[in-house]
Recover the amino acids of this structure.
């Protein structure tokens, strides 16, 4: 199911890009402070710390009016996960668990941008996520989330340079329900991008 959805969104982006004559292609790099919190207060639950979350991606944007534009693309994020299991106090107990510290996720952001003057803009929209790594010891983040932020963009004749502080919330609507409780990945980050305008 996940692979079929991923293929569908990639084809949708490809078709929309070839059907438009004027667009912007932007590559970006970003870093985020991230956390994965439970969706309810659970005493004694295990926890994870997410460190060094980095993202790279490409966006395709098309202006639909003087102030509005639509953007879509692919984003690849990776981070290190530290896992703190919930073990009861025991002096002579040996516990074993498997843990993969390398977290990877592929995202498809699709959002609208609204110009707030010549430089600043606001952006918001859904993000479809596919968690690529397994064994990270927290809820699978595959599903639909959202992104919102306010950025700045400087346009030249053919190039653009942007900075985009943003908030992302993953796994708001999961592809597969894992039970009553889940951990939700949240990011506060910034992206630096360079675009080429056709």
């Amino acid at each position: 199911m996940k692979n079929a959805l991923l293929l569908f969104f990639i084809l949708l982006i490809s078709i929309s890009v070839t059907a438009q004559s004027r667009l912007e292609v932007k590559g970006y790099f970003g870093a985020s402070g991230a956390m994965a919190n439970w969706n309810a207060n659970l005493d004694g639950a295990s926890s994870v710390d997410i460190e060094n979350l980095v993202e790279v991606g490409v966006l395709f944007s098309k202006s639909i009016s003087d102030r509005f534009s639509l953007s879509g693309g692919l984003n690849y994020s990776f981070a290190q996960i530290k896992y703190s299991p919930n073990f009861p106090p025991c002096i002579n107990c040996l516990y074993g668990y498997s843990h993969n510290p390398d977290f990877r996720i592929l995202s498809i952001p699709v959002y609208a941008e609204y110009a707030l003057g010549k430089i600043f803009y606001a952006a918001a929209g859904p993000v479809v996520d596919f968690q690529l790594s397994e064994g990270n010891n927290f809820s699978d983040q595959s599903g639909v989330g959202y992104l919102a932020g306010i950025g700045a963009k400087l346009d030249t004749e053919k190039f653009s340079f942007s900075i985009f502080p943003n908030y992302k919330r993953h796994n708001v609507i999961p592809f597969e329900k894992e039970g009553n409780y889940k951990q939700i990945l949240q990011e506060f980050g910034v992206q630096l991008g360079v675009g080429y305008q056709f």
Helices lie at 2-18. The chain has a mean pLDDT of 81.
